[in-house]
Amino acid sequence: MRLLSRYIAGRFFQPFFFSLGLFAVLIFLGDVFDRMNMLSSSPASIGQILQYLWLGVPYWSIRTIPMATLLATLLTVTGFVQSGEWIGVLAGGFENKDLWIPILACSGLVAAGGLLAQETVLPLSYSKRQRLWQEKIHPEWQSGSYRNVALLGGPGEMLEAETFTPKEGRLERPTLEIIGPEGVTKELDAREALWLPDQKRWLFRQGVERTKGPKGFVASSFEEKVSDLAVPPALLVPNTREPDEMSLWELKRYARRLSHLGASTREFAVALQTKIAYPFTNVVLCALGVPLALRLRRAPKAASFSIAVGLSFVYLFVIEISRALGNSGLAPAMLAAWLPNLIFGGAGAWLLRRTGGGTF
Question: Residue 165: beta bridge partners?
């Protein structure tokens, strides 16, 4: 049985890695062509653009793992059937489940690898890619201004301003709140604030400082005060971090930080559960792929490719609908993230149960 499992694993991973590379390249090229106008007119150097494109490879590879798993499952099972190996193994006293359980185990290994990459490689590459886009390739912050904005500074720092001009490093009517475990501990309210490049701090001018004491807040006026706010204008641009930039632990901590600032964390709660549920998509699609491949029998590889792409996009479509339900509050975060796996996983388990007990 162990020898048979190793043989099946070898037959599975060969088309898996081929499919992974194929799907990742196709979707990657589609993303490049979609951004071609911005890339061609970007002030960034060729090296920075190439670095930006290369940093997108881990993202698209991880996103296409479920599609590659499904296609590898279809090709592996139909390959066994078309070569007569499946019937030969059954004739040797084995059951159908002795053939598809190793394939399911391979998809479990793929899911574990995808989760590991999602928590290590993806946050590093994606965050660096986003910084390159915002600061070098498409630097929107260099022009224009923002009105009536709420900005996130460092840990426990909430900043509001009537006008924010990043290129000039200037804030009009800024209010900086320092938030601790028990709420606001300090507040700076000024006429304007200027970024000091040499000190790497924001200078608040003509304002009032309120500090929380045992008997409440104590106010004192000032003409100029160098604050502890050390976030430069380019990084202070109104822009929330995306879940793909963070690991599960970082995402949980970031959501807690937003909660302390009074912001809604519903979308981040859904994203947190989705990051946990997404790797299991590989196992679910594999469970669907085995009985589907047995029904395809001698279908050509082009049919397997088409079915893998079609079923994967249906699955992703259901994921997006479920996520939208969670983000809107119509469904709890955990249910919204896991509902697609529950639906398709239940169908796959039912089909596998029918397949495992019978003969081909």
Answer: 170
Cβ pair 248, 308 in contact under 8 A: no
Instruction: State pLDDT tens for residues 151-187.
Output: 877 777 888 899 998 888 899 999 998 887 777 889 9
Residue at token pair 């924010």: 164
CA dihedral 63, 67, 69, 75 (to 10 degrees): -160
Residues 6 or more apart whose CB falls under 8 angstroms from that of 10 comprise none
Burial of 127 (0-12, 13-18, 19+ CB in 10 A): middle
Q: Give helix 121-132 / helix 97-119 axis angle, nearest 10°.
A: 50
Which tens digit of pLDDT belongs to each residue from 269-323?
999 999 999 999 999 999 898 888 887 777 777 788 888 888 888 998 999 999 9
Q: Whole-angstrom Cα distance, residue 74 to residue 69? A: 9
- How does pLDDT run across 39-96, given as a tens digit for each residue? 888 888 899 988 998 999 899 899 899 999 999 999 898 888 888 888 887 787 777 7
The residue assigned the tokens 């996103």 is 63
* Helix, strand, or coil (residue 41): coil
Evaluated on CA atoms 89, 2, 101, 61, the torsion sign reads negative
Tokens of 192: 């304007």
- The two most distant CA atoms of the chain are separated, in Å, by 90
Q: List the chain domain ranges.
A: 2-120+261-357, 144-239
Cα–Cα distance for residue pair 306/174, rounded to 1 Å: 56
Q: Which residue type sits at 161?
A: A
Separation between Cα atoms, residue 333 and residue 120, nearest integer Å: 24
Fill in the amino acid letter for 281: T
- Assess contact for 326 and 270: CB atoms under 8 A: yes
Instruction: Indicate the burial class of 317 (C-beta count within 10 angstroms; 0-12, 13-18, 19 or more).
Output: exposed
From CA 161, how far away is CA 139, in angstroms rounded?
Answer: 21
CA distances in angstroms from 108 to 19, 101, 268, listed in the order given: 17, 10, 26
Q: How far apart are CA 81 and CA 173, in angstroms?
A: 72
Q: Tell me the whole-structure pTM to 2 decimals.
A: 0.73
